[in-house]
C-alpha cells in the first residue's frame, strides 16, 4: 500500500471564445480523484499565465488498485451551458502510480488550455 497526494496546481488558458459575448468564460470544473469530487469555479480568459487551482487530495492506495483521475468542466451561460473538454487518467503500480508533474493539453471550439497536476508519494 502507498500513500499519495494528487494536486491540481493550475490552468493556463491559451484561447477562449464565448461566442457573441466577450472572451471571458464563466466556468465550473469538477476534479474527481478515486471517486472524491472537488469543484472549482472561475472566470477564465486567454492570458497565457496560470490561474492557480491548488486542490489537493491524499489517498491510500493498495498495491492492486489504481489512482483514477477525471476532470471535466462546463462554461456557464444564461441560455445554455457548454461542455468543456476534460480528460481521464488512470495510474497503477505498473506505471509508477503516475508520480510526477502532468501538463494536460485539451481544446474545443470554446477553449484551449493546459491543466497542470502532480502526483507525489507521501
Which secondary structure elements does this structure contain, and how are they paired or packed?
Elements: E1 2-16, E2 25-33, E3 36-44, E4 51-61, E5 67-75, E6 82-91, E7 100-107, E8 111-121
Antiparallel strand pairs: 1-4, 1-8, 2-3, 2-5, 5-6, 7-8
Give a written overview of the molecule.
The chain is mostly beta strands. It contains no helices and 8 strands. It has a 4-stranded antiparallel β-sheet, with no helix packed on it. The protein has a 4-stranded antiparallel β-sheet with strand order 3-2-5-6, with no helix packed on it. β2 (25-33) and β3 (36-44) form a beta hairpin.
Distance between the termini: 12 Å
Q: Tell me the strand percentage band.
A: over 45%
What's the overall average pLDDT, rounded? Answer: 93
Which spans have pLDDT < 50 for at least 5 consecutive residues?
Answer: none
Note the run of SSEs as H and E.
EEEEEEEE
Q: How many beta-strand segments?
A: 8
- Strand order in the sheet with the most strands: 4-1-8-7
Coarse morphology: elongated
Give a brief rundown of this model.
Helix content is 0%, strand content 67%. With 122 residues, the chain is an all-beta fold. The chain is elongated, with a radius of gyration of 15 Å.
List keywords for this structure.
122 residues, mainly beta, 4-stranded antiparallel β-sheet, 8 strands
Amino acid at each position: 500500500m502507498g500513500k499519495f497526494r494528487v494536486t491540481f496546481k493550475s490552468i493556463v488558458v491559451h484561447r477562449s471564445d464565448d461566442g457573441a459575448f466577450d472572451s471571458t468564460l464563466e466556468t465550473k470544473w469538477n476534479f474527481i480523484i478515486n471517486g472524491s469530487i472537488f469543484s472549482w469555479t472561475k472566470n477564465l480568459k486567454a492570458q497565457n499565465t496560470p490561474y492557480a487551482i491548488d486542490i489537493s487530495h491524499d489517498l491510500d492506495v493498495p498495491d492492486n488498485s489504481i489512482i483514477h483521475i477525471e476532470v471535466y468542466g462546463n462554461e456557464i451561460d444564461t441560455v445554455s451551458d457548454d461542455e468543456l473538454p476534460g480528460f481521464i487518467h488512470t495510474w497503477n503500480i505498473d506505471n509508477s502510480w503516475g508520480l510526477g508533474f502532468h501538463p494536460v493539453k485539451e481544446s474545443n471550439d470554446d477553449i484551449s488550455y493546459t491543466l497542470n497536476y502532480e502526483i507525489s508519494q507521501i
